[in-house]
Each structure stands twice: as structure tokens, then as C-alpha cells.
Automatic annotation (TrEMBL):
Protein name: L-ascorbate oxidase
A Pfam family that the UniProt record links to this protein: Cu-oxidase_3
Keyword RNA-binding: no
GO-annotated cellular components: plasma membrane
Organism: Culex pipiens
GO molecular function: copper ion binding; oxidoreductase activity
GO biological process: iron ion transport
Entries under InterPro entries matching the protein: Cu-oxidase-like_N, Cu-oxidase_fam, Cupredoxin
Residue ranges occupied by any Plastocyanin-like domain in the UniProt entry: 71-175
The keyword Signal is assigned to this record: no
Family: Belongs to the multicopper oxidase family.
Keywords noted in UniProt: Copper, Metal-binding, Oxidoreductase
Length: 253
């Protein structure tokens, strides 16, 4: 017998698939490396690949290689990205995620929104109460079953962590989606995930980029999953957001 073990980077997407009730649930393995780097705020507006460069690389692109302290900020990176990668699974899948904390002198904990954690209450909740925080330069493995369908988030517990990039989309697809929402079935099925984040300065970004471009093909119908993240515990009174796509009609499903 030959056994083959795949690293998490190699099996990062097989769980992103059409969900069918007749299929067995899968074990979905991921590895997320959390870092924190000091970098200029302007990078969020110019990095079209959503990859944050190191401070040395960023300094080399500025005039004279000098950056004012007011123009720099510590940002959280998830697998090298400001706003982590989207994790897409099917209902009833078993999730196994290694969280690697590479932040010096700071512990973290991840919250998985929307999931009941009925059999695994110690895999979520307030750090030091229902779950142990992940100490600096250690790895913790989360294990739970995705039992609530919809567009959810994984993020750090503090509002600052959410606002500075420690956040990503966690999508749980339903086995009934193709029957209920025909827009997501067949050859025209295209799905996009947008995380709209508000910074502490009030600016908005989509998927970690303030200047965001979404490439689409004419004639296709797209399903757009949208989640909003704010560094504030509560939005200012009367503050609401409206999302529209110019010259296109949106249908809420």
C-alpha cells in the first residue's frame, strides 16, 4: 500500500465544489500563517495582486527610500495577504485548520462566525474562557464541522485585528443551492466573494484593496457574496452603506 500525504498548500481548494447530498462530507485542511508587519498605508491602494510587500521592498519604491512614521502602520497578514484567503466548503464538511502565529509577543484567537460549534465549543469563543489563545510562534489546530450555510467570516477577536486585516471569508455552501438558486448552477455558475472593510480612518476597501477591480465576462450571471467588516464595535448612528454596480441590475437571493 502507498499512502500519500498532501501539504495544506496542495489541498487548498478541493472543498470548493458543487455540494450534493449524496456525496460524503470531506475533510478540508488549511494552513493559515498570521503575521504583522509595519508598512505604508499607501500600499493598500497600489498592490493589484493583494500581496503586501515587506517594509524594505516598500521603502525602495518611495522617494529617497524614506517613510514618515505617520504614513506607516502595522497590518495583519494572512498567508502574506491583507485580508485572508476565502475558505469555501460544503455543509457538513469537517474543517481542519492550522493557525500559525508568527507575531512576536502577541497571542491571537480566531472566531468562526455563524458556526454553532455544538460538538466543539472549545474551538471558538472568548480567549482564556472557552478557547486557549495561540501564543506567539506556536501553532494551533482548529477542528469543527461546518453546520451553518451562508457567507461567514473568520477573524481575530479584537476590533483592531479585524480592521487591520486579520479577517477572511468563510463560505459554507448548501446542498440545496443549485435547486433553489438556478443562477448558481450550470455552465453560467460564477461566484465572487467581496469583503468590504472599513478602516479606522473611515476609508473603505474591498478584499484588502482600496482601488479594487473585478474582472468579469460579458453574458454570464454572477453570484456575489458580500460581507462587511468594521474596526468599530458599533457603527456611528445613522451610518449606512449602499452597494450598487453601475449599469448592472442586482437581485438579492
Amino acid at each position: 500500500l502507498i499512502f500519500e500525504t498532501l501539504f495544506s498548500e496542495e489541498i487548498f481548494s478541493p472543498c470548493d465544489r458543487p455540494c450534493k447530498r449524496a456525496h460524503w462530507p470531506r475533510i478540508c485542511r488549511y494552513r493559515l500563517v498570521i503575521e504583522k508587519r509595519l508598512m505604508p498605508k499607501s500600499l493598500l491602494a497600489v498592490d493589484h495582486k493583494n500581496i503586501i510587500r515587506t517594509t524594505d521592498q516598500a521603502a525602495a519604491t518611495t522617494t529617497g527610500g524614506h517613510l514618515a512614521w505617520q504614513q506607516q502602520r502595522h497590518y495583519f497578514l494572512v498567508n502574506g495577504r491583507h485580508t485572508g484567503p476565502a475558505l469555501t466548503v460544503c455543509e457538513r464538511d469537517f474543517i481542519v485548520i492550522d493557525i500559525v502565529n508568527r507575531i512576536p509577543g502577541q497571542s491571537i484567537a480566531i472566531h468562526w462566525t455563524g458556526q454553532s460549534q455544538r460538538r466543539t465549543p472549545f474551538m471558538d469563543g472568548v480567549p482564556m474562557i472557552t478557547q486557549c489563545p495561540i501564543a506567539s510562534y506556536t501553532t494551533f489546530q482548529y477542528k469543527f464541522q461546518a453546520d451553518q450555510v451562508g457567507t461567514h467570516l473568520y477573524h481575530g477577536f479584537s476590533a483592531e485585528e479585524r480592521g487591520l486585516g486579520l479577517v477572511g471569508a468563510f463560505v459554507v455552501r448548501s446542498e440545496h443551492e443549485q435547486r433553489i438558486h438556478p443562477v448558481t448552477s450550470g455552465c453560467h455558475r460564477q461566484e465572487l466573494v467581496w469583503i468590504i472593510a472599513e478602516t479606522d480612518s473611515g476609508a473603505l476597501s474591498i478584499n484588502g484593496r482600496r482601488s479594487f477591480v473585478q474582472q468579469v465576462k460579458p453574458g454570464l450571471r454572477y453570484r456575489l457574496r458580500v460581507a462587511f467588516v468594521s474596526p468599530f464595535e458599533t457603527l456611528p448612528e445613522g451610518c449606512q452603506y449602499w452597494l450598487e454596480v453601475d449599469q448592472h441590475r442586482l437581485t438579492v437571493i
